[in-house]
Structure formats: structure tokens, C-alpha cells
## 1
Amino acid sequence: MTTIGDVAQVNPPKPKYKELTDDDVVGFVPMAAVDESSGEISVVEERPLGELRAKSYRTFSPGDVLFAKITPCMENGKSATVPELPGGHGFGSTEFHVLRPGPEVDAQYLWNFVRQKSYRVEAEAHMTGSVGQARVPAGFLRDTEIPLPSLDEQREIVDHLRSISDRTRAAAEHLATAKRIISSVNRSLHASACTGRLTEDWRRANTDGPDTEIPFGWKTVRVREITECLDRLRKPVNNVERAKRPGPVPYYGANGQVGWIDEPLFDETLVLVVEDETFTGRTKPFSYLISGPSWVNNHAHVLRATDEISPEALNILLSFYDFIPLTSGSTGRRKLNQRSLMDAELLLPPVPEQQEIVRRVNEGLKSTALITDQLDRALRTLGQTSQAAAAKAFQG
């Protein structure tokens, strides 16, 4: 056992740059360029030395280890080994601690040690400074005890951890792909429900008429014909005012519940539809159900279903409706106004078939939710695997 301060310099002094002129190009590393998952630096900017040398940037060299000391970058694991640099010198944020390994310690070994979650938790406990600006002091790094096997064994440990990291990263990419597939399955489920494909067999068994271009028994309607719009009753309340009115009533916005308030505007089952939010490239549904006491702000349209349709069926028909051509405004934040929503056309199935659609969609969503939960658990396990491997490695 030794300490980091015994085997590495912590924040070494700036070099004299005797071999360079102010016009010579050197490297600059923004904090955002440090990838917390891989320990790699994605971007090394090229800047003239004269632009940087007089400023209070942290300096480093190839082979050094960068360790973000400020919250939340430190807790998120922003750390990296420094690659080759333009001009052989680097500059970056003073919110980096720089560890310069001595001859006894391998840079990758040192980086793997300080990036451990257990180490970052301990570092967080030693932070100093105000809330939101807390930092890990250099003394904590210097005094940290570190197990030091031979250089050969250090490099064996590094290779072992890299192998595990590569495999867990590949597995995580496969799991992420599976989650995207599940999301597309949910959209396809809704699409088939809205066109009648989902209940083709049900119609053959329960009706006498043939399907033509429109499924038998279905009809084209506008949203205004099967709903009542309650937008006139909604009221926005900002965060400051809501803080003065704490209570048990959910406060809803464009994408779901965004807070609580003391009293309700509504007390029934309703369908909320996004009014002004992300439309282009959106993966979330455009509508969602609420029930019971509630308060709704002005970022979601409020629809009450009539006797011709259940709220659950209405939500299915609107969840992934192609609203984008009906919206106006900039790409980043388009708006679906009330008239466009209420004039939107959709296919309305008869009430008995609506009930079957709701049953089948709910059954399908329940299945995909179970799969998504399994995928999320697997992703969490992958993260724990890398940390457990590191813990074993540094225990010999």
C-alpha cells in the first residue's frame, strides 16, 4: 500500500515552454470532451500557445490522468488519460485535477482506480465549498491510499478491466437497441389498433359485414364530434405559486405530471393532448389519460370523451396520431392549436370493438412494459458488473 501522492504528482506546475513560441499550436480540452464512460477525450482543440499560456488554465501532458473535481462532473465519473497532444502540451479547465504518474505506476491503472464508483463516493464525502460548487480538494487525492502491485500486474489488471468494459459496453448497446425495438412495437401496436388491423379476427367472429377500405362498422369523424374540449377551464400556475399551495392534487403539463397543488380543477377521467412541445422527432405519445382530482396547465389540451367513445379508446386513437402536419411554429417547439386538434379526422370503431381494442392494447403494453423492465434491470446489472470487477482487481 502507498498513496497517490507518493507515486504521482498532483497538479504539477506549469512548464516553461522553452521549446515553443506563442504561435505554436497546443491542445485544449473542454470539460465536455471528457467521456465519463470510456475515459477517452473526444475532442482536442488546436489553439496557439500565446492565447492560453497567460490564462489560469490547468496544464497537462500526454500520459497524465484528468480527474474532474467539481460537482456533478466528479460524481458522474468525468476522468480520462491524456492522449498525444498538438505541440506536446495541453490546457483545460481549472476544475480538473491532474495526476502525473511516476515510474512506479501505470497511467491506465491509476485512471481505473480513481474512476471507481466507490472512490467517487468517498471523494464526494470529502468535498469542500458551497452547495452546487463543491470540489474535491487536491489533498484528498494526494493522501488516498492505493494498492500497488508490480507494473506487469498493473498492466494485467488494466487489460482485464478493459476486456470487461468492452464486453459490457457491447452488451449495453444491444440492450439499448432492444429498448428502441420495444418502443417501435408500441407505436406499431397503436397504429394497428387505429386502422382496424389489430381486431380483424374479432370482426370476423362478431360481425356479419365484410371489411372494405374502412373496417366494417367504423366511420370517419372529427375529434370535435366525439369529445368536448375543456381548455377554457385549465389554468397555469408557476413553480413559485405552487410552492405556496402544497397539496395532494397532481398538476399536469404537456408530458405528464409536473408537480402538486392544493385543489383540483377537474375530477374525472380525461385525455390530455400536447399543445406546445416537441412534435418533430418525438418518441413519447402525444396524449395520455388522467383520472380523479387534477389540475392542468396551458401546455396540454383537455378532452372529455362523449358517449360514442371511451376515454381509454380516445387516448389510443390520439397517442400516435400524425399531428405534425397540423402544427405551426418553429421545428423545436411547434404548437397544436385547439381548432386544428378538434378538426382532426380519425376512424371511429363501434363501442364493442373499442372495448376489445382497449383490452388488446393494454395487454400488449403490459407485455412490453415487462420486457422493458427486464432490459432496465439488465442495464443496471452491467453497470454493477464493471464496478464489481474493479473492486476485485484492486483487492488483488
Note: The chain has a mean pLDDT of 93.
## 2
Amino acid sequence: MIETRRTWLGGMLALAIATGATPARAEPPVVVFAAASLKNALDDASAAWSRETGKSARISYAASSALAKQIEAGAPADLFLSADLAWMDYLAGKDGISAPTRTNLLRNALVLIAPKDSTLTVELKPGLDLAKTLGDGRIAMGHVEAVPAGKYGKAALENLGAWDGVKGRVAQAENVRAALLLVARGEAPLGIVYATDAVSDPSVRVVATFPAASHPPVIYPVALTKDSTNPDAAALLAYLRSPAARVFFERQGFTVIGAENRT
């Protein structure tokens, strides 16, 4: 059997040499680094792109802060999708992105969540006493100095006058999906995540939506990395900006920024 296989392979190699043909080489996938909150929508969008083009993408999800630092350190990413402008700005300052390809792609909202069976009610208004609502529990948030959702959440609580009362009772998570999981498991009675995260997990419910004016706008920029050499990366970026991808983002609750407002 082994000898037969060797004979077959030898024959194929001889045929390739005789005809000048070379074996087809698999094209490398587009390596995407994306904020954790994009997982459901981006998985669906990239799968649709793959079906249409025959190309593939490999996506790594984490906090935007961690991903930006990894790219800065030389991680071989082709495309970066951040959950806030600050970490894209950071990477731009390190000459880590292709500036002409940068665009603002999506908007999101910030919400307060609780486990689905919770009866807690909260009105998000100035003078909020969130510590009283928490009781002996803690509030789950992304790391408030690094993770975009955590930074937005801290800003919102400061704006409403509630931060000082809860700052010592925050369960800080490595990314927004980890904060979501703490609430879904009942390990925290309340959490601050994006509206799209709440949609993705039936184990939680939205208690209230933070007023848009209470925190900076939640904007997701995207760009090719400066060192990307994958010719398919630009095609994937173009697809994510196209009407064809809009349905996948809107299904998860994102607002797609119109082309006229992207810069």
C-alpha cells in the first residue's frame, strides 16, 4: 500500500513537472483582532464573507486594550476592530495601523444588567444611590482604567454621582464579555455592559439604559494594521463596511455608522 502511494505521488509530481504546474497553496486566513463585544456579529459577518468569497478569517477576541498592546508588540494581525477610539488612537500613535484605512464603523449603547430572574429596579438619573441597590453584592464591569466598557461605565457613574459609592465594590473583569458572564452566573447582582452583549445572553436582562449624555459616545473604529501583507485583508474590511454586512451588526443591536459620518 505504501509503495503504491509512493508510485502515485511520484507520477503526479512527474506530471506537474512535465506540464509546468505547481501544487495549489492554501491562502492564509485574514487575522482579525476584535473587541470581545463584537463576537456574535463579527462571527456571522465573517462566515458570510467566507461563503461568498472562499476566503477565510481567523478572529481573536479580547479587550481592545489587550489587543492594541499585542499588535504594538508585533502580533501578526491584519485587521483591528476596537470598542473605543482611544485604543485605536493609541495604536495609531505607535504607527501600528494604516491610517488611510481607518474608519468609524459602529455605535453601541451602555446598559445596566441583572440576572434574568432578578427583581431589582434602577432609575439611572443624577443622585443615583447604586450602593444601596447592590446590598452586599458587587457590580461587574470591564477594568475601569483599560477596558472600553469599563471606562464608559465609570464615566457614566461619575456623571450620575454614583461612582464614589460603588468604586470599592466593583468586580473588574478582563473584558466586557467576562463582566457579562459574572452577572449571567449570578455572581454579581448588577453589571455594566453594552446593549449588544445583553442581547447575546438570555441569562441576563436589561435593567436600564444609561443616558447617552452620561458617557462618551461608544464608537467602534476599524483599520488595517500597518504591517499587514495579506491581500485579502482589504477585501474583508470593504465587506464589513458594505450593506451586505449591515444586517449582521444590526441583528445584534449595533448601529452602523453611515459612510458620510465615518471619518
Note: The longest strand covers residues 218-224.
